[in-house]
């Protein structure tokens, strides 16, 4: 009787354990036509409506021409938004965001993240403390940064930078070299 009860308990624990999702070893999920993942590297192809969920893991998302993408992770998100893609999402600490071509990016990332907007991309990005942003060419950047954030904006780019955190709603300070900073001196 005790062996049968112990065996039943083991079977139930295995069954319930296999039904749970997430955790540190969970593979990312990617829904939408044309969305695929290999390990933690996901790709959305042209015309797709992709939603990538990586849970706690670091992952990457590559959005190709005319894709509509949404990537989310509590880990670091490495996002490449290309050509005429529309990209949304949330990443954790140390995320890296690149918006090129005529892409449209609306993203939030944690501390120590980087973002680069180039060509004619339209970037609305909210970054945590100690992050950096580069806006080049004719990109349009609407940036919100926390403490110790630096935004470099080319003269040909359009930039709006406001500070968050303890300086919420305050415009970034413009340095003599053109950098815009939040919560720090030039």
Quick structural gist:
The chain is built from one helix and 19 strands. The protein has 186 residues and is mostly beta strands.
Percentage of residues in helical conformation? under 10%
Strand content: over 45%
The helix/strand order is HEEEEEEEEEEEEEEEEEEE
**Number of structurally distinct domains:** 1
Q: Got a strand count?
A: 19
In one word, what is the shape? globular
The largest pleated sheet is described as:
10 strands, mixed
Distance between the termini: 75 Å
**Low-confidence spans: pLDDT under 50, at least 5 residues?**
1-24
Structural class: mainly beta
Question: What would your notes on this structure say?
Answer:
The chain has 186 residues and is mainly beta. 10% of the residues lie in helices and 45% in strands. The protein has one helix and 19 strands. Strands 2-3-5-7-9-11-13-15-19-18 form a ten-stranded mixed β-sheet, with no helix packed on it. Strands 1-4-6-8-10-12-14-16-17 form a nine-stranded mixed β-sheet, with no helix packed on it. The longest helix is centred in the first third of the chain and has 18 residues, at 2-19. 38% of the residues are buried.
């Amino acid at each position: 009787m005790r062996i049968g009860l112990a065996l039943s308990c083991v079977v139930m624990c295995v069954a319930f354990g296999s039904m749970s999702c997430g955790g540190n070893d969970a593979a990312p999920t990617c829904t939408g036509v044309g969305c695929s993942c290999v390990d933690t590297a996901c790709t959305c192809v042209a015309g797709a409506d992709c939603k990538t969920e990586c849970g706690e893991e670091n992952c990457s998302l590559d959005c190709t021409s005319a894709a509509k993408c949404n990537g989310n992770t509590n880990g670091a998100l490495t996002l490449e938004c290309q050509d005429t893609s529309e990209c949304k999402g949330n990443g954790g600490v140390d995320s890296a965001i690149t918006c090129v071509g005529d892409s449209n990016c609306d993203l939030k990332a944690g501390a120590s993240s980087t973002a680069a907007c180039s060509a004619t991309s339209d970037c609305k990005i909210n970054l945590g403390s100690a992050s950096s942003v580069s806006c080049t060419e004719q990109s349009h950047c609407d940036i919100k940064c926390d403490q110790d954030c630096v935004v470099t904006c080319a003269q040909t780019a359009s930039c709006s930078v406001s500070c968050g955190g303890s300086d919420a709603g305050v415009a970034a300070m413009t340095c003599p070299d053109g950098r815009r900073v939040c919560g720090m001196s030039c």
